[in-house]
Amino acid sequence: MADSDMTAEPIRVAVFGAAGRMGSTVCRAVLDAPDMELVAAIDPPHEGRPLDDFGVAGTGLTLEMPGPRVKAAGPAVAVDFTHVEAARGNLRWCGLNGVHAVVGTTGLTADDLVDLSALFDGERANAVVAPNFAIGAVLMMHLAALCAPWFETAEIIELHHDNKLDAPSGTALLTAQRMAEASEDWGADPTRTFALPGARGGEGPAGIHIHSVRLRGLVAHQEVLLGTTGQSLSIRHDSYDRTSFMPGVLLAVREVAGRPGLTVGLDQLLGL
Ligand code: NAD
Questions:
Q1: Which residue puts its alpha carbon closest to atom 34 of ligand 1?
Q2: Which of 82, 219, 221 to mutate to test the pocket of ligand 1 (most atoms within 8 A of CB)?
């Protein structure tokens, strides 16, 4: 941040899902950011409870419903880490109330994005939606697509904690999709017999195989393996805890007001 920015008014931030794992981490990150002010914490299932109960001490904030009290707090930007049905309602509230939105909640569909681009039309408010706010993961996907045309074989191994309900991860699927868009020239799978069904993982876009590891002690990790004659290249990203997402979230909070309409993914914010 440039010194001159320190003289500007702090960005007033509200957090949807403030009692949750990601939301409470966002609250702490906003409190630690010198150019931001946490003005509202929203989490209807915990309405009326102090934010202190969720590991965010000393704000004096109480968890709210979205509504007039949140509007009166005057947020310029709202961050949403909830679940998909809740996010749809929260984003509608933001769009109609002229509050810019930064959305990390996963599970939004292509139809949702069409609706959001109408709601966040750049007139009333803007939105940044990113299924992965870890800057390293965004760079990993970018590098994988950049490298794809130089290799004929690739496999993706994603590794997550043992509570993850879905497989493969959205990031692994998106990585394969971007590699498939970057190159059509992929070698055929040589496997003809299986001693164990599924041994080759799942087949993603362009036939790129994706392997999902679930292991206690892990957080979120991914390795992209690319091979060609006589050489291979591995690109690996590791998220060790939820703070890994915070630089990306804070970047989006700082940028969203200056990016008219709907922005999907962090790539544009990183200049990729
Ligand atoms: P969580 O269950 O710990 O937290 C969700 C919170 O939302 C809960 O406190 C819940 O009470 C609250 N909530 C429910 N309805 C609400 C509503 N209408 N308004 C406001 N709050 C409401 O979940 P989590 O682990 O924090 O994950 C939240 C979301 O973030 C998930 O969709 C997850 O996949 C996603 N996520 C995204 C990234 C990324 O980089 N984009 C990273 C990690 C997690």
A1: 106
A2: 82
Whole-number Å distance, alpha carbon 26 to ligand 1 midpoint, is: 11
C-alpha span between 234 and 27 (Å, rounded): 35
Residues having CB within 6 Å of any atom of ligand 1: 16-17, 19-23, 42-46, 81-83, 86, 89-90, 104-106, 130-133, 245
In the chain, which ranges are continuous DSSP H helix? 21-32, 68-72, 84-96, 110-119, 135-147, 170-182, 246-255
* Amino acid at position 179, single letter: M
Distance from Cα 201 to the centre of ligand 1, integer Å: 29
In which order are the strands placed within the sheet that holds 202-203?
A: 202-203, 209-214, 153-160, 220-228, 231-239
Torsions phi, psi for 152 (to 5 deg): -105, -15
pLDDT, tens digit (0-9, with 9 covering 90-100), for 13-32: 999 999 999 999 999 999 99
pTM of the model: 0.90
State the Cα–Cα distance between residues 261 and 170, nearest whole angstrom: 24
Which member of 160, 209, 211, 221 is catalytic?
160
pLDDT tens digits along 227-244: 999 999 999 999 999 999
In DSSP terms, 231 is beta-bridged to: 228
Largest CA distance in the chain: 66
Which residue type, as a one-letter code, is found at position 148?
Answer: A
Is-catalytic flag, 71?
no
DSSP for 97-129? TT-EEEE--S---HHHHHHHHHHS-SSS--EEE
Residues 6+ positions from 60 with CB-CB distance below 8 Å: none
